[in-house]
Amino acid sequence: MTSNPFASTAPQIAASILSADFAQLESEIDEVDRGGADFLHLDIMDGHFVPNISFGPAITAATRRSTAAFLDAHLMITDPVRYAPAFLKAGASALTFHVEVAKDPVAAAQELRQLRCKHVGITLNPATPVESIYPALDHVDHVLVMSVVPGFSGQKFMPEVLPKCEAIKKRLRPSQRLEIDGGIHADTIRLARDAGVDWFVVASAIFDQKDRAAAIATLRSRMRP
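Now predict its structure.
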């Protein structure tokens, strides 16, 4: 796995540990590393902004102790700026906040920068108008489009978000990346790639498979034209 997915313009697979077996987290991470995943995605849920609680800084720190890989922390929480220092201290490489919880998304992105977050991302839910993130585009490194309603792993992909991906991609600088999360598997990854997506968050389609390396290889093959 890489410590900097921004260094390449090739499409990349982010294995979401939300579907991993936390009782053997280190071996799970090692397996997807050897299997060819590019970096790790951490789905942080607070039970308030989304109807589920996943994990927080402690698991983030345990993940960091297990790998030098890039840790892409998706903060599905009501107050991301307040809790950002704890996740950065725990070893998160990037923090992504939701536009739905930010009264001023530009200010939120700038505050995360001031906290020395090297990679700042912004995300939006399927029902949120894409225009809501435009003011912040100059202040973030990547944009995450949710292709399910956030809260749980294993949901069905929502193709209606693909026009959002296309619209956002046209506005991004070459150094920025477009990410998608939700229902990504062998039958949907090509749709997202065709819409301009660079990074693909995959949870159950990797961790629920017996052969993780084969699952990742299949995902890569489906991304090709």
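The helical segments are 25-35, 57-66, 80-90, 105-114, 162-171, 189-194, 204-207, 212-223.
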